[in-house]
Design a protein that fits this description.
It is built from 12 helices and 14 strands. The protein is an alpha/beta fold. β12 and β13 form a beta hairpin. α4 packs across α5 and α5 crosses α7. The protein is globular.
Length: 354
């Protein structure tokens, strides 16, 4: 008999669901006649009958690379993860400020007409300059406030496609939150050695070092070698994103804007790396098989996206790793299910903006 993690029996779950359906406890309308099939409607867009299974604070340097735009839209369109806010962060370059990222986040939310549902917060104006010295910002305060909530049992993910300033600063300010959420981070390099020059680590090295070396924070890391596999073609974006709503056209125009800004010297060919979209896959598209942690039922299985559970290595100032023989385990992903990732994104664009 097939069983899920921690002893959950898939067959028993299905039998239970069938019983609930027979008892009328699920909102299902049968076909009008015995031998007819009710037409399937794709409007309104899919929403889980039982509601969201997690909360997400989404953190991104939207003033930097354009992949953050696509992941932001995908996150907004994923109802299984209750989006509790977007934090716009500094990208570490001239003009790539937290204020600019925040403005772009608000633009996305406005175009998608979600202003009344999604709050946007501004992150830190600069990196952590000294070990142990947090940079206070609205973004860090939003992480603290959400992590300290006691009125919900939904697990919290802080999904970061940028530097780790706001997360590190939040824990420095309020250490009690370090075991109250999971960090999902696009950044760093893979074990065993790590590497130098990875963009999101370099935005704020002291923040990354603090979180890995000095806290017990649960971490799911998607290193550079893995997020670089999240590649789509320009024609896929043209066919599956650009035609769908104002936001689809806006996303496509952001890519064209890079060419306008940098001219013929910026030739990407026919492919784009959407390396921040795994944030959505890992926080909102979990397997349906639950796991139990004490009295909590969690959905943390990520199926065909493979990872290793390892003792958190020590992060060095240059981005390399030093192995440790004791300490907490963290996840470091070896692969991302790009079929699920991008098919889901393209389908959501089509269903939400037919």
């Amino acid at each position: 008999m097939p069983r899920g993690h921690n002893g959950f029996d898939r067959r028993q779950l299905l039998v239970g669901a069938a019983g609930a359906l027979a008892a009328g406890s699920l909102n299902f309308q049968p076909a009008a006649a015995q031998n007819t099939v009710a037409p399937l409607s794709i409007t309104p867009p899919f929403s889980p009958i039982s509601g969201p299974r997690s909360r997400v604070l989404y953190v991104n340097d939207l003033s930097g690379d354009p992949d953050g735009f696509f992941a932001t839209v995908h996150q907004i369109l994923t109802p299984t993860a209750e989006l509790r806010g977007i934090i716009g962060t500094d990208a570490g370059g001239t003009g790539e400020t937290a204020a600019r990222s925040t403005s772009l986040a608000r633009e996305i939310v406005s175009i998608m007409d979600r202003q009344s549902q999604i709050e946007v917060f501004e992150g830190a104006p600069q990196r952590i300059a000294q070990a142990g010295a947090p940079v206070r910002s609205a973004g860090a305060e939003a992480i603290i406030a959400e992590a300290m909530r006691t009125d919900t049992r939904l697990p919290l993910y802080v999904a970061v496609g940028s530097g780790l300033n706001e997360v590190a600063s939040a824990i420095m300010i309020e250490p009690r939150i370090a075991d109250r959420f999971t960090l999902v981070w696009i950044g760093g390099d893979a074990l065993p050695d790590g590497g130098t020059g990875e963009t999101n680590f370099n935005i704020d090295p002291l923040a990354a070092q603090f979180l890995y070396n000095e806290t017990q924070l649960p971490i799911w890391q998607v290193p550079r070698a893995v997020y670089k596999t999240c590649v789509v073609s320009a024609t896929e974006i043209q066919a599956y994103i650009a035609p769908h709503g104002r936001i689809g056209a806006w996303l496509y125009d952001r890519l064209a804007d890079l060419v306008r800004r940098f001219g013929s010297g910026f030739n990407t060919g026919e492919t784009w790396t959407l390396g921040d979209n795994p944030l959505v896959l890992l926080t909102g598209l979990h397997d349906w098989t639950p796991a139990r942690a004490g009295q909590e039922i969690l959905y943390t299985n990520t199926g065909s996206s493979a990872y290793d559970e390892v003792i958190a290595p020590r992060f060095n100032p240059d981005g390399t790793f030093s192995p440790r023989t004791e300490g907490r385990n963290i996840r470091i992903y070896r692969s991302i299910d790009t079929r699920m990732l991008f098919n889901d994104f393209f389908a959501k664009m089509r269903v939400n903006y037919p």
